[in-house]
Amino acid sequence: MKFTDKLLPREKVFRDPVHDYIYVQHQVILDLINTKEMQRLRRVKQLGASSFIFHGAEHSRFTHSLGVYEITRRICDLFLRNYPTKEPGDGLWDDSERLVALCAALLHDIGHGAYSHTFEHIFHTNHEMITQEIITSPKTEVNKVLRKVDPELPKQVAAVINHTYSNPQVVQMISSQCDADRMDYLLRDAYNTGASYGNFDLTRILRVMRPYSGGICFDISGMHAVEDYIISRLQMYMQVYFHPVSRSMEVILSHLLKRAKQLADKMPTNDRSTPYLLMPFFQNNFDIDDYLKLDDGVLNTYFIHWVDSKDSILSDLADRFINRRPLKSVEFNSDTKKLIPKLQKLIKQVGFDPEYYTDTNNSFDLPYDAYDPKKKHHATQIELRRPDGTMVELSKVSRLVNAVTGKQLGDERFFFPKEMLNSVNNIEIFQPIYEEFQKHIKNNQLT
Amino acid sequence: MKFTDKLLPREKVFRDPVHDYIYVQHQVILDLINTKEMQRLRRVKQLGASSFIFHGAEHSRFTHSLGVYEITRRICDLFLRNYPTKEPGDGLWDDSERLVALCAALLHDIGHGAYSHTFEHIFHTNHEMITQEIITSPKTEVNKVLRKVDPELPKQVAAVINHTYSNPQVVQMISSQCDADRMDYLLRDAYNTGASYGNFDLTRILRVMRPYSGGICFDISGMHAVEDYIISRLQMYMQVYFHPVSRSMEVILSHLLKRAKQLADKMPTNDRSTPYLLMPFFQNNFDIDDYLKLDDGVLNTYFIHWVDSKDSILSDLADRFINRRPLKSVEFNSDTKKLIPKLQKLIKQVGFDPEYYTDTNNSFDLPYDAYDPKKKHHATQIELRRPDGTMVELSKVSRLVNAVTGKQLGDERFFFPKEMLNSVNNIEIFQPIYEEFQKHIKNNQLT
Amino acid sequence: MKFTDKLLPREKVFRDPVHDYIYVQHQVILDLINTKEMQRLRRVKQLGASSFIFHGAEHSRFTHSLGVYEITRRICDLFLRNYPTKEPGDGLWDDSERLVALCAALLHDIGHGAYSHTFEHIFHTNHEMITQEIITSPKTEVNKVLRKVDPELPKQVAAVINHTYSNPQVVQMISSQCDADRMDYLLRDAYNTGASYGNFDLTRILRVMRPYSGGICFDISGMHAVEDYIISRLQMYMQVYFHPVSRSMEVILSHLLKRAKQLADKMPTNDRSTPYLLMPFFQNNFDIDDYLKLDDGVLNTYFIHWVDSKDSILSDLADRFINRRPLKSVEFNSDTKKLIPKLQKLIKQVGFDPEYYTDTNNSFDLPYDAYDPKKKHHATQIELRRPDGTMVELSKVSRLVNAVTGKQLGDERFFFPKEMLNSVNNIEIFQPIYEEFQKHIKNNQLT
Amino acid sequence: MKFTDKLLPREKVFRDPVHDYIYVQHQVILDLINTKEMQRLRRVKQLGASSFIFHGAEHSRFTHSLGVYEITRRICDLFLRNYPTKEPGDGLWDDSERLVALCAALLHDIGHGAYSHTFEHIFHTNHEMITQEIITSPKTEVNKVLRKVDPELPKQVAAVINHTYSNPQVVQMISSQCDADRMDYLLRDAYNTGASYGNFDLTRILRVMRPYSGGICFDISGMHAVEDYIISRLQMYMQVYFHPVSRSMEVILSHLLKRAKQLADKMPTNDRSTPYLLMPFFQNNFDIDDYLKLDDGVLNTYFIHWVDSKDSILSDLADRFINRRPLKSVEFNSDTKKLIPKLQKLIKQVGFDPEYYTDTNNSFDLPYDAYDPKKKHHATQIELRRPDGTMVELSKVSRLVNAVTGKQLGDERFFFPKEMLNSVNNIEIFQPIYEEFQKHIKNNQLT
């Protein structure tokens, strides 16, 4: 398999706001970009409900996928220039792995659907499984393009996604605690939200990255750059990804889909409001073709119809989602958790069904993890390479990283209608209920 | 009408990648942002088909509207600080106009629909008229919010959009050859495409802007900054907005909608592929509620259905649009225009209906215009103010601007299926036709 | 004292790469900028020897001083807009303090000399004392400008520098753990070095800053922005300010000045190499006029002369400094420290005087400190304000800050001629000495 | 001559704010950077007196030289990747030219002195001649480093500087109307001044650049990018390089040096104010060693001494330069030029010697030039390459460039003491003279 034979007559570029240019040098990459499965990602937002809060965050999974591809391409270039393998097993970079790496990078998110995480939760789909299916199913354009290069290529690319590929360098490029995926989404989300916290020094990290027999490590001289990346990622989680208002919009979305699913049997099957493309999912009888027809716009189109539904809960939740009317929320902890039933009761008294109008949601992230023999599953820890070739794990030398290693950071919140907090414009008769409710909230926390 | 009474208890901000923060100080602005008509703009891309070429250009008209509001707010602040009116008729800034200006800025694009320019062309809608209707119709949330401040406010805001408002400073802030609208879209489109050409020095332009009795002028000391803005705008037209591939996608879209409209009578009215929300437009019998239900995602949803249509032209054009399969194009001029019928004939011979698979499209822009007594309609020319208070028109002192003043820049192109250019993978029997076709194309031009 | 009477007829701006524009609104600020004492700062680099490593870091203390002024001006504007005092003692912002704050911000570094820290060490000057003297001495232009506004102004401004000024808000704006000085130098040094680590979200920090009776605090909603600033500062110390090569150039400079001072008695007093402007310092008999004649260029001019000195140590050290020939260094700790005498002996054996060719240097910084009753002196801790008005200290809520609170971070290094590490181009007879020396160095550390 | 043998064991980088990193791959480049002649450029500001107006513009010719090297390196990389020569005379890129190109790029400014243009004017030196002398004289470190690679290398590098080198591609990389030198200084000066006008799309220009038998041309697809670069350069000239206040500071400097030269015979030769390092220039008897001892700091040191001179003109001019007290200026044209003697007479009446306190200065630049058979000397015109390989000159296809081709843009100004404009703080008895003077000035122009 000599991939270099498949180079484009002349390298092609895509203008990119984050990486300046995306460079495409192989025919197969260009062909993959042009498949309908890849093009669908243009219609799926990278950050879902976050754009309701950070209005600039309207970028799609398509642009992110190009970015992950480009970072992977640069890593391959650097590895080829500085650490080319000389003999099998020397732990250096074998550039015949390049095309598998590039394809896996480009395709790593191809199974993502509209509002992925919420959708999966309600319909029990799994975007990672679907990604592998799109790559290996003979029905897809992606699969055809890959097979034209080599009949084994789809299986290899899927193995990278699945972490079972034989070369750990390729796997860790795409998926590890400091990989092309995370590096692109941090930079891109920071660029588009305008929240500068996600910025870190990509060029410097690429300079200190190097292959070794166990995968990918980093020169110890670049310790602070890696540390800065870990902290930046943590900041993005705390300030952007876990923003209470976007979680509130996801709560509404989740309840909206749940309600629709519940009503599905009774929905007219031949009506302007029939969600034809969702029916296979309501009926739990869908295939990959059904899945690939969904995108953000399709779901939103149904929600627009549902605003006019006769079911008042479906209609109201659709309105809240489409027209951005978020729930409010407060933090709680294991102590104050026990207050929630009481609050739900008060909420019910003023007329909201707690099943659809309240929820709890915890958002926690593990900013970094080192190997712990007591755990079953664990992330690939970040190894730093000393001048003499020995390795040391990141949290051993970084006081900052050490402080967050193995720690779940985030919070747990209780969501409820904002009407509970307003003293004006509300129904007077419920005033004592509102007041009772508000007594339990102080400094944005349950008390 | 004392708008300052309606200030928010504490100023609210929206994080913005272009302006850092959008500052909201009035309750009415916050309420307008929260109307469903404004929220709809989140689902309408600012640049339509351009994102098929500049993949980062996925931003919506919502974010642009916030940006126009913010630039207008800054202009008002500067005018109030440096040029507050002392007596009526002194040509200085009367800050009681602020709220009209801010509302008009925020709402100036509210009537834009999905893929506006193409849609208007096929369905004879007009986004400027609709903008005014949304503002003045008592049915909309926008209107209700405005009326709460003052019953006259809707009419005043609509008058600004319509260029009939009494204060020319307010009109020119929002709409002139150097206004908040153009300044925001240049910066934002440049930011998101990654094409740096659109950048210019906003802070410097704001510093040299000043009110006068005729509207808005610029200190002559800032001539080069204004000149640079005019050139940047020209560059964005030439390099981004008039890109041949995005025009090609618009050609496809236009033909797709035309075909659907033609088939509308025969379309099943009660079927999974029925475009319910488009029907009022096919039947030329729509109201503002129908219009406000449309967005990019709704149209795309119908296109996704139509890919499976039995009408092979509808199906193929839908596939070309949804899955980004553009036509090719070449430039022509008045001499070579006469070749087009011959080329269309060749195209027909290989099996493409020229009505749906070829088109001509000219894209010309007037980068800048000065007053010309011979013309009926003309733009507000840009006036520069000398230290002694006299004015001079921009193109009189800028050699660069002079070179493009009153000149239409752009090109005229002929669009056709890319199959005509490929020598491989095509049907062998048609080879002589392809060769005949290709003889007329050299250096991307008809010859 | 009504400072607003002294506003400029029209606000003046200075273009600034970091803050876009510096806005000057008061005559006194413009006059201060035009004093010769301020203009001298143009000839003193902000980062001294760091530009030998980060070649872009060529900016002066003049540009930094403008930046600190500008940040302070923005803080005053925000405080006036959002937290104006209503009655004495309410802990809100009294805008009659503005001019004292602005002058102190602009002048806070006016006593800095050429290569300040090294110079102070050798000549026992103190830039903070000199700053106060320049402000209060009737001989300076700065003092005259201040007195024109109010005879008490010099004393007040000096009190801010000295931390004895009555209003703690003014003092903490200029000097605290999150002040205008630190914020400007981090952003400016990051901008000019190209090391992005120093970037943090200035606009957001300014938004959450607020006055209170104890000085300045921060809304708890901005905790992560303050945390990010603390981490950015730490990163700049670790990666830029403590860079081993710039410390090595400072070691050379220090030894060069020490040697010159030692030779001063014997230097010809009437010769082309006589350092006339340094003589008062060699003789420990200088006044403020002598001090204000020095700048980076004056010292360098003497060093250029000294390269031709007959004293071989003076000549060689001058050459090493002027022509950037740094020493090498390795890290050591309390254990390996005891090896240093042995290494110095080896260095002496190959012909270098250890007094001038070796040194130890420790660089440690306290990234953040909270109040500790056991310590005598302590920094103003960073207080976060909860919605109900209560305060919490930063390290109590930030796991990251907590990890570095009260910890000295940095390292201790031993500096020596790089000839000790080269195996080639060295004198063969010394080979065993070099080898003995090199045995003690592994992974850039003494062992 | 196989330069690739001299690669560094591992590529070295310098952090750069404009290009992110400068990559050094050859030992000879690293050695050249470490010569004392290159290190001297750290002490010479790139923009001389411009930093008096744009305070951020404090960068040196050293950082610019690294930047020119880096752009040249990238061009070589692109040419090698895309257009490698296959046989002699095919007009493609011969990578054995790389090292000559890189050395010439790095060294192209090495002969620049302190305040070069003014200095040259007074002392009749020529920085281009001196550059060649530094490269070819066996006395310099630069020459030694070059000779170690190949005895012919110094001559070759000097030939590139001198435009006589046989390969026009190498010459045009370093010196043409769109070369690495201009591209770096525009970007770097824009970055440091904060004036964004100088920005253009470097990556895009590099992508469309290609070698041909006549030197370097550009793909016609990149026409707008080249056009934008030409306009950006024009903007920088108009807004930064020709700023009236920096020209005023140069007028003062020129008069100061002229006065000092005039007084040189009478200057004490053995005194604290003796400008030892300038004496060879006053006596018109200097060699390259004398020249290489000068830098900005050395000249400033003498100026600091001269402030205390007994010659009142020398003292006053030195004070005006060191402490930034610029002259005022007005524009004049061929008509109003005849007023100048009258104004000088008025200036003399209030006590200023017109020879030292007035001057005229014209600053004109040719933004772009095409070949004109009528002219003797002409710049290499910019050629655009059509897909079929034919060329077209830039101004033929760009309306904007055409508008400025062959046109000298700029202005001519008359400089005088600002005392002539002040009505207050001046000596009352001269009031009629000031008024007479001011009558001739309107809108910053002579009338």
UniProtKB/TrEMBL annotation, chains A, B, C, D:
What organism is recorded for this protein? Apilactobacillus timberlakei
* One protein family per Pfam: HD_assoc_2
Tell me which domain of life the UniProt entry assigns to the organism this sequence originates from: Bacteria
Q: Where is the HD domain?
A: 61-186
Check the record and name the InterPro entries matching this protein. Answer: dGTPase-like, HD/PDEase_dom, HD_assoc_2, HD_domain
High-level lineage: Bacteria, Bacillati, Bacillota, Bacilli, Lactobacillales
Coiled coil residues, start to end: none
Q: Tell me what this protein is called.
A: HD domain-containing protein
| Gene3D superfamilies linked | Hypothetical protein af1432
Listed SMART domains? HDc
